[in-house]
Amino acid sequence: MISFEALIHSRQSVRKYQNKPVEREKIEKLIEAVHLAPSACNSQPWKLIVVDNPELKNEVAQATFSKTISFNKFAQEAPVIAVLIIEKAKLIAQIGGLVKNQEYVQYDIGIAAAHFCLQAAELQLGTCIIGWFNGKKIKKLLNVPKSKKIGLVITLGYPPDDYKQRKKIRKPVQEICGFNSYS
């Protein structure tokens, strides 16, 4: 088993995939990772839709780019697309969010997506979180009620064998962390 430290160092956004299906057992592990994700007041305000039907997956992928905005075109290569739908949080979490002026549901969706992506990396699968998509079109394709909102779309699949681990470019730690004070 890979250590957590090695996992967070190796996980990267993958934008190229092999034409190889993802095994159902691995998808079930990803679902369990999302299922176990923490959330404000244990609301679990999400519904995960796994799209592995090739024709439907292609239509969902096409809803992540357009003629003028094509940077998500790689989504067509992924054999699986996961869609996180935002569900209503528990009343106590909603009230807390209003009182504290925080969008806990957005944090919760991010945590669920991180669980999905880290579990995928451990399983030698690649992912890319997509925040730019045609939500109206995806909702129609996946029979999502109009009152719901799509939080994130995640591509999933096997990266090519020669896919290079990129050097992570991050701000210096001193810019993103302070001890006992904002500095």
UniProtKB/TrEMBL annotation:
InterPro entries: Nitroreductase, Nitroreductase-like. One of its GO terms (molecular function) is oxidoreductase activity. The keyword Oxidoreductase applies. Keywords: Oxidoreductase. Residues 8-158 form the Nitroreductase domain. It holds the Pfam family Nitroreductase. Gene3D superfamilies: NADH Oxidase (3.40.109.10). Belongs to the nitroreductase family. This is Nitroreductase. It comes from Mariniphaga anaerophila.
